[in-house]
Design goal:
The chain is an alpha/beta fold. The chain contains 10 helices and 14 strands. It has a 6-stranded parallel β-sheet with strand order 1-4-3-2-5-6. The protein has a 6-stranded antiparallel beta barrel with strand order 9-10-13-12-11-14. It is elongated.
Length: 311
Amino acid sequence: MQVFLGDPRRFGLPACALTIGNFDGVHMGHQNMLARLRAEADARDLPAALLTFEPHPREFFARSQPPARLSTLRDKVLFLRQLGLIDYLFVYRFNHGFSRMAAQDFVGQVLVEQLQARYLLIGDDFQFGADRKGDFRLLSACPGFVTEAMPSVLVQGERASSTRVRECLAGGDLAAAERLLGRPYQLSGRVMHGKKLGRTIGFPTANVHLPHRKPALQGVFVVEVDTPDGRKGGVASLGLNPTVSTTPDYKLEVHLFDYAGDLYGRRLSVRFLKKLRDEARYDNLTELVAQIERDAASAKTYLTSLQREQA
């Protein structure tokens, strides 16, 4: 899969079969759409392509209260590569000028001239252009390409959508989120230097940088992390850390079991397996340490039972 930022005409690419969307989380609905796109592209002897936007348009329009982002652009690229269903990923910058582009101009300038779409697959609720005036009727009237709509994908009777995944994560239902995603929910980021308080109380943590202001979930969790020395289980806190911090910045702190390696500067992917509890404020460090010990014991018990199930 090749990734192109902005107008790709300078690369001399061929015409393509295309789909459009934010694909936040790359959940089962997205995966089914890309599988259908791949089949249609092969039938037409065209490369399969995805057009997505950065930042997420909802982040652009609600800057003061942006929705929780499920995946960073880096993780989105990773998930798409792992699927192996598309040839080209086009990433367009979503800014003020792009947001005011009329729907007809988007069709003519972006879909026809820049991307050379010959087949277009969209979701059944897809809207685009200034004031969201573009829709399936407008696209299907364009003679330059064939447009088809993909119906919603149901997972155990539930519509797979990024909004629903966010709701499951916010409610702590990681099992439901995993069903909709087709994998455990994960966040990735680089390990940064922090206050190093954890090592002084017997629980050293990797402080993982969060690239977005608002995470999709909060609390204390059982996690798995791929390290340079293999996959390790642990316990993680994602939130404001109110006992020892007064800043409004969210923090992801991961304590790995039986691991003493140096992770500073490394990028970690943290998979969230089970929520143990909500975040809480404690009156002193003694109470905090006692709770961390209980969390660690619960996490180890869960990971042991998981290993037995998978054996």
